[in-house]
Design goal:
Number of strands of chain B: 2
Mean pLDDT of chain A: 92
Strand order of the largest sheet of chain B: 1-2
Distance between the termini of chain A: 15 Å
Radius of gyration of chain A: 13 Å
Shape of chain A: elongated
Oligomer: heterodimer
Shape of chain B: elongated
Number of strands of chain A: 0
Low-confidence stretches of chain A: none
């Protein structure tokens, strides 16, 4: 897995992931929407931490400078 | 990886010899060397294998292998870049906080423990001891001997 995210991209993803997780797990958003956020929050968090986005890979794009 | 390898080969000419082996043309040799995937780099010094890396390597990682070959000592362990380490520790701490404030939400606390460990795993002596054995077991499971 080659890193395809720039530093700013990774930090943004981690922040978004944490916010989504807080909204879901913290009870700010309840019901099925809250449940979706509880799971969905991990997607930007994990992709930000590993620096690789499968969607970027599929679309052959990268925010990381060559 | 070939351009990086060629660059270092030129830099270390006369001090480190680089031998390339085509896995398709020499399957017996590949098997005897215990190579299960390509590219694999093996550093030999004084007739003894001192390092082995599988997969594409950064220029920094390759350079450490060349230095090790010249010095005749194993290269230093590859460690996490400081930015990655900081990001994982911060994310792990934030997830732990969210988990503790939400109940506590034990699955989240468990995940935060994994995230925090991922920020320091390369410095954990238990992981360092287990990791080569796990890697070799995984390779054996992926490519069983005929």
């Amino acid at each position: 897995m080659k890193v395809n995210e720039a530093g700013w991209d990774r930090i943004l993803r981690v922040i978004i992931g944490l916010v989504l997780l807080y909204l879901g797990w913290g009870g700010v958003v309840t019901g099925s929407a809250g449940l979706v956020l509880k799971v969905l929050g991990f997607v930007p968090l994990i992709t930000g931490l590993i620096g690789w986005c499968p969607l970027y890979s599929l679309l052959r794009v990268s925010t990381k400078k060559a | 990886m070939e351009p990086k390898l060629a660059k270092l080969e030129a830099e270390y000419r006369g001090r480190v010899a680089v031998v390339r082996l085509n896995a398709d043309e020499a399957p017996e040799t590949v098997r005897n060397l215990g190579i299960f995937s390509v590219p694999t780099l093996i550093v030999v010094s004084g007739g003894r294998e001192i390092a082995r890396r599988t997969g594409a390597q950064s220029l920094q990682s390759l350079a450490s292998l060349f230095e090790a070959a010249e010095a005749g000592t194993p290269p230093p362990l590859v460690s996490l870049p400081p930015q990655d380490r900081a990001l994982r520790m911060l994310a792990g701490s934030a997830v732990l906080l969210i988990g503790l404030l939400s109940g506590p939400a034990w699955p989240l606390v468990g995940i935060s423990a994994l995230l925090l460990f991922s920020g320091v795993y390369d410095r954990c002596p238990v992981w360092r001891a287990l990791s080569p054995r796990l890697a070799s077991l995984a390779q054996r499971l992926r490519s069983p001997k005929r």
